Amino acid sequence: MEDLKGKTVVVTGASRGIGKAIALKLAGLGANIVINYRSESKSAEDLVEEIKALGVKAEAVQADVSSFEGAKNLIEKAVEVFGRIDILVNNAGITKDGLLLRMKEEDFDKVIEVNLKGAFNCIRHVSSVMLKQKCGKIINISSVVGIAGNAGQVNYSAAKAGIIGMTKSVARELASRNITVNAVAPGFIKTNMTEVLSDKAKETTLKGIPLKRFGTAEDVANVVAFLSLPYSDYITGHVINVDGGMVM
Ligand code: NAP
């Protein structure tokens, strides 16, 4: 059985939802975890304690990933505490939905800044660490709407499609140094992000899911675990949908 004993993982936006599930899953496989959060320090500190109880090390680091300097501090802090970074999971994300004709310029910019530039910022800073190590795995959380589009999510789908392009370009640039870069594209996952949607929207979405259920954060974490483990060593530049068959 493969595991992640002694590996260091940085998970952005890990204070709740999918990021938290990823942190717990990888900690359960033996990795030490850096839990990044933007504002929820109490949830992040509680998660540190939960992870330490699994017998591994954990550290919470506050940083807004949309800031180039903030992402730099996050990566530097992770190296300072654990000495290396084996896996980076770019999970932090926000939504500011609205139809195109009503979408404010700042709502477009903000979603791109956090969801797309935030991932770039972290990859940019972690790449020098991984290049020196001559190994690493970068896992970017995209979305099926980055593949199929979604009315009301012009900003979000553009950012998530951008993540896919970035994943493939970085995969090509870093492959020769034994660094893999892949993306996971979740469908509808039950978290705070989707809780706010109307019952009607949820009902319509459910009709389009062949497996007839919404996903859980653990469904996504399981695929991130596969991409973190040596089982996926020969996979790079790919996108794996975790969506119950929503987008094929
Ligand atoms: P969530 O419950 O809203 O959690 C988002 C996390 O991101 C929180 O921990 C939040 O921390 C953090 N965050 C937000 N802005 C940040 C920033 N600027 N810097 C650092 N951290 C920041 O969302 P989720 O549903 O778990 O989503 C996680 C990822 O999966 C996102 O990239 C999302 O786009 C993607 N995704 C979700 C779904 C879904 O159905 N839920 C589907 C497809 C893709 P603070 O609260 O501390 O700010």
- Provide the gyration radius in Å: 17 Å
Q: Within the CATH hierarchy, at the fold level, what is the topology?
A: Rossmann fold
Ligand list: NADP nicotinamide-adenine-dinucleotide phosphate
Task: Label the CATH architecture.
Answer: 3-Layer(aba) Sandwich
Q: How does the major sheet shape up?
A: 7 strands, parallel
Taking pLDDT < 50 over at least 5 consecutive residues as the criterion, the unreliable ranges are none
Task: Give the H and E element order.
Answer: EHEHEHEHEHHEHHHE
Helix content: 40-55%
Mean pLDDT: 98
Helix count from the secondary structure assignment:
9
Task: Tell me the span between the first and last alpha carbons.
Answer: 31 Å
Number of domains: 1
How many DSSP E strands?
7
- Which structural class fits the helix and strand makeup? alpha/beta
CATH superfamily: NAD(P)-binding Rossmann-like Domain
Strand content: 5-15%
What are the defining features of this structure?
single chain, 248 residues, alpha/beta, Rossmann fold, 7-stranded parallel sheet, 9 helices, 48% helix, binds NADP nicotinamide-adenine-dinucleotide phosphate
Quick structural overview:
By secondary structure, the protein is an alpha/beta fold. The protein has helices at residues 17-28, 41-52, 68-82, 105-133, 145-148, 154-174, 192-195, 199-207, 217-228; strands at residues 8-11, 32-37, 58-62, 87-90, 136-141, 179-186, 239-242.
Itemize the secondary structure elements and their pairings.
Layout: E1 8-11, H1 17-28, E2 32-37, H2 41-52, E3 58-62, H3 68-82, E4 87-90, H4 105-133, E5 136-141, H5 145-148, H6 154-174, E6 179-186, H7 192-195, H8 199-207, H9 217-228, E7 239-242
Parallel strand pairs: 1-2, 1-4, 2-3, 4-5, 5-6, 6-7
